[in-house]
Amino acid sequence: MFRDNIVTQLKDKINQEPDNIENYSNLANYYVGSNDLNNALLVYKEILNICPNYFQALVNLGSIYFYKKMFLEAIECYTKAIKLYPNNYASYYNLGNVYAEIENFEAAFSNYQKALELNPDNGDIYSALGYLYQDIENYTKAKEYYKKAIEKNNTNAENYISYANILQKMLDYESACKNYEIACKLNKNDPKAALCLANSYSTLNKFDKAQEWFQKAIDLDPDYYSAWVCRAIAYSDENKAQEAISMLKQAIEIDPDKPNAYILLANILIEEKRYEEALLIYKTVKQILVDDARISTFIANTYILLDNYAQAVRYYKKAIKQAPKDNEIKLLYIELINEYIKNKAKAKE
Question: What is the pLDDT confidence band of residue 188, given thresholds at 50, 70 and 90?
Fold first, then answer.
């Protein structure tokens, strides 16, 4: 009711002064604040119908289009904004974000570099360039730009996480851990930072410290699916299968539509020689990943362990049909057939 009253009041002002852009802007901004992007989009369009060169409306509309993944429309808005104010770094930065999202890396680089020329002390631009280099797997350049992002803004925890992620990829685990620690100190309430640090300690086989930070991440967000899954992996690395199984079951309870926890759980059950249980889990995840050849192969392999060659053949055939170019699956199938023939021959002797 309160929201309806405010919207009514703002619309009344527009009706009284239909040429007053400020009234439209106030309504659009209210919609954005209420996360009603569809109505905000309509109002910004009205503003641009009245005043096609209204810079802030173009920028805000571009942001809405970007959020709604309407990338061509976002590009059009930001490009118009740049033509109006060619020295506004934020427009180039926003346009770079759009091009990065659609993987037009050359255009993204160009716009980020222009934004950097106009605002060389902005850490967010360096970070964006770091992400871009990371996407094309140029980790040396990504590291360079993430480091600059930290130099420009050493209070942003996300910069340290990004930098540490690259250090991990470059196998510098000790340095990565130190940067994750800084991120956790800067943002003590960020479960993502806590999870990154936990995983880093686990990589270094510092399992006690890892479990401490896994628990911290879960305490901050009990429904953090990735924290439960990663903690399970750490327990598995410690050869603590029961604890890992418990974590994965919790992850499945949190989000039963994600396949990762099911697959990891089934794999651990296989290692524990609990084949029937594993088979049930694989068949459950098969309902999520219907056409995934990998899952069909897992099921086939489990049937082999259960000495059920007929069902193994059935699921290998499914896997081959789902991934006809996967020669590894074909080789496994041929090995299975040869083994099946040998067993038949032995049975007749």
Answer: very high
